[in-house]
Amino acid sequence: MIPTSDMVLTQFRKGVVEYCVLACLRSAPAYGLELAERLGTNSSLLTSEGTLYPLLSRLRQQSWVTTTQVASAVGPPRRYYEITDEGRVALETFTTTWSRFTTDVRTTLES
Which parts of the sequence belong to the Transcription regulator PadR N-terminal domain (predicted)? Predict the structure, then answer.
């Protein structure tokens, strides 16, 4: 079987999107829909909100994010996600590794 670009993107997302979420939280806490909008601006990162919330739950279980409920003036309370110190270390490790990895891939593909 010859893979489609969607199949390849699915495999890329599995290892990358959680770190993109952490990067979005690096500067300030955000609620789920806000994160979906940030990631959704580049559709190759997030295909639907339905995939975001289980990922956020996993990040919370790993202690990479914490959550806080905040009242909203226009609806139900919002759950804000904030990166933890452990999450920052995980993001830094990923960033360093990603840089080396993409350089190696680019070099291999161009040879």
Answer: 21-92
Q: Could you identify the residue written with the tokens 């590794």?
A: 97
Q: Are 81 and 66 in contact (CB under 8 A)?
A: yes
Structure tokens at 100: 């080396």
Location of structure tokens 């139900």: 76
CA–CA distance, 65 with 70 (Å, rounded to integer): 16
10-residue mean pLDDT series, the chain (111 residues): 88 88 96 90 74 93 96 88 98 96 95 91
How big is the CA angle at 8 (ends 89 and 37), to the nearest 5 degrees? Answer: 60
Identify whether the C-beta of residue 71 lies closer than 8 Å to the C-beta of residue 77: yes
